[in-house]
Design brief:
The chain is α+β, with helices and mostly antiparallel strands. It has 13 helices and 7 strands. It folds into 2 domains: 214 residues, no CATH class; 141 residues, Histidine kinase-like ATPase, C-terminal domain (Heat Shock Protein 90). Strands 2-4-5-7-6 form a 5-stranded mixed β-sheet. Strands 1-3 form a two-stranded antiparallel sheet. Helix 2 runs antiparallel to helix 4. It is rod-shaped, with a radius of gyration of 42 Å.
Length: 446
C-alpha cells in the first residue's frame, strides 16, 4: 500500500492534480476578493487623514482595477485552453505579485501615521497574508508571491520607525516578529499544500487503478466470451464424430457378434454416452458464460413436465436397480421457461441417479418448489458449498467411481438464478441428499 502511494503518477495524472489545485485556487478567488477590497477601502480611509484625498482615491481606484482584473483572470485560469500548466502557474504568480505590491504600497503612509494606526495597518495586512494560505491552497510559489511583498514592506516600514523612534525597542521587535510570522505562514502553507496534494494524488491513483481494473475486466470478459464461443463451436463440431461413433456402435450391435465383441461394444457405447453428456455440459456452461441463454417464459404445467421427465429417466434408473417415482398435485401452472426448467430438473435427477447405488430417487412437486431426494452416499457438511463450484469433484475416488466434469449442480444453480429461483441442498453422509428448486412466484391460475 505504501509503495503505491509513493510511486510517481503518470504525467497526465500529475497535470490533473495541478489543474485541480488551480481549480481550488480559482474557487477561493471567487469568494475572497470582496472582503479583501473592503479592507483596502478601510486602509484608504485611514490614509486619507494624512495624505491628500485624491492620492488615496487614486490608490483605491488602482486597487479596484487590479481587483477586478485578478478576479476575472483567476476564475478562468485553470480552464484556459491555450496555456500549459506551467504557464498557468506563472500567470498566477505574476498576478499575486502585482496585487500584493499594490497592497504593500499602502505602508508608504507610515511616516505620517501614529503608532496605533500603524499597528492597525499591520494587523490588517498580516490578516490578508494569513487568509492567502487558504486562498492559495498553500502553494509555496503563489503564497510567497503574495505575502512576500507585503511582509517585506511592513518589516521595512517598522524598521524605518525603529530608526527614527526615541524608544525603538517596540518597533524593532515588531519588525523581527513580522519576519518570524512570515516563516510560520510559509511553513503552514507547505503543510496545507502537501495535505491537499496528497489527498488528490491518492484520489488520482485510485482513479487510475480503477480505470486499469475496468480495462482489465473488460479484456478478461471479452476473453471469456471468446473462449465460450470457441468452446461452443468446438463442442458442436465434436458432436458430429461422436454421433458417428454412436451410430457405428449401434449398427455393429445388430450384427452377429461374439460375447467378447458385445462386451467391447457395451464399453464403447457407455464411454460414448459419457462423452456426449460431458460435451452437453460444456456447451451449456459456455452458453451461460456467453450470456446466450434467452428465457422464454410462459405458463407451464409443471405436474405434466415432471411426470414426463420421470418417465423418460425411469429406464435408466431401473437399469441400475433403482426406483424413480414422482409425487405432487395433478396439475400446477407456473410462469417459467419450460426448456430451462427441464434442464435444471434433468441435471438434478441425473446427479441423484449417478450417486445412488441402492434404494431410489423421488421427485416431489409442491406449490412453490420441486425437490429431488435420493438414498445415495450423501455429502459431508463441509463439502456442501463446494459441490456448486464448477469442475469440482470432492475426492479422486469420486472421479474414479463416478466419472464426470462436476458441472451438473453448478449449471443447475446458474440456470435457477436466471429463472429467479433458488437451489437449496440438504444432505448428510450415508443418509442421502435432497436438492430443492424453490420459487417465490404464485402459481398461475388457468
Amino acid at each position: 500500500m505504501t509503495a503505491n502511494r509513493s510511486s510517481p503518477l503518470p504525467e497526465s495524472e500529475r497535470e490533473g492534480v495541478e489543474l485541480e489545485v488551480l481549480g481550488l485556487i480559482a474557487k477561493q478567488a471567487r469568494r475572497a476578493p470582496f472582503p479583501i477590497f473592503a479592507c483596502m477601502v478601510v486602509l484608504a480611509v485611514i490614509a486619507s487623514r494624512h495624505i491628500p484625498g485624491w492620492i488615496a482615491g487614486l490608490w483605491l481606484a488602482l486597487e479596484a482595477g487590479v481587483f477586478f482584473a485578478r478576479y476575472g483572470l483567476l476564475s478562468k485560469l485553470h480552464v484556459h485552453p491555450r496555456l500549459s500548466v506551467a504557464q498557468k502557474w506563472g500567470r498566477l504568480v505574476r498576478l499575486n505579485l502585482v496585487s500584493a505590491s499594490l497592497h504593500a504600497s499602502s505602508v508608504l503612509v507610515f511616516p505620517w501615521m501614529n503608532g496605533a494606526e500603524c499597528a492597525f495597518f499591520t494587523v490588517l495586512l498580516l490578516g490578508l497574508c494569513s487568509g492567502a494560505i487558504a486562498t492559495m491552497a498553500g502553494s509555496t510559489r503563489a503564497l510567497l508571491a503574495f505575502i512576500g511583498p507585503i511582509t517585506l514592506s511592513l518589516a521595512a516600514a517598522w524598521a524605518w520607525r525603529y530608526s527614527t523612534a526615541t524608544s525603538p525597542s517596540t518597533e524593532s521587535m515588531i519588525s523581527l516578529l513580522i519576519f518570524g510570522y512570515t516563516g510560520v505562514m510559509l511553513a503552514v502553507g507547505q503543510d496545507v499544500n502537501r495535505s491537499i496534494r496528497s489527498a488528490w494524488e491518492s484520489r488520482h491513483r485510485e482513479g487510475l487503478a480503477n480505470r486499469r481494473l475496468t480495462d482489465a475486466l473488460a479484456v478478461a470478459e471479452e476473453a471469456g466470451r471468446t473462449k465460450a464461443r470457441f468452446l461452443t463451436a468446438a463442442g458442436h463440431d465434436l458432436r458430429q464424430p461422436v454421433a458417428v461413433i454412436s451410430t457405428v456402435s449401434a449398427v455393429l450391435g445388430l450384427r452377429q457378434t461374439t460375447e467378447a465383441d458385445r462386451h467391447l461394444l457395451g464399453t464403447l457405447s457407455q464411454a460414448n454416452q459419457q462423452l456426449v453428456s460431458q460435451l452437453d455440459s460444456l456447451i451449456e456452461l459456455c452458453r451461460l458464460d456467453a450470456a446466450e441463454v434467452k428465457l422464454q417464459r410462459q405458463p407451464v404445467d409443471l405436474a405434466c413436465l415432471v411426470q414426463t421427465h420421470v418417465a423418460s429417466l425411469r429406464p435408466q434408473a431401473e437399469g441400475k436397480g433403482l426406483s424413480l417415482n414422482w409425487e405432487g398435485p395433478p396439475t400446477l401452472l407456473v410462469d417459467t421457461d419450460p426448456a430451462v426448467f427441464s434442464q435444471i430438473l434433468r441435471n438434478l435427477t441425473h446427479n441423484a441417479l449417478k450417486f445412488t447405488e441402492r434404494g431410489g430417487v423421488v421427485v416431489a412437486l409442491s406449490q412453490n418448489a420441486v425437490s429431488v431426494a435420493d438414498t445415495g452416499c450423501g455429502i459431508p457438511a463441509d463439502d456442501q458449498a463446494r459441490v456448486f463450484e464448477e469442475f469440482v469433484q470432492l475426492t479422486p475416488a469420486t472421479r474414479a467411481e463416478w466419472p464426470g466434469l462436476g458441472l451438473g449442480l453448478p449449471i443447475a444453480r446458474r440456470l435457477a438464478t436466471a429463472l429467479s429461483m433458488r437451489l437449496e441442498l440438504r444432505s448428510a453422509p450415508d443418509q442421502g441428499t435432497v436438492v430443492t428448486l424453490a420459487w417465490d412466484a404464485q402459481p398461475v391460475t388457468a
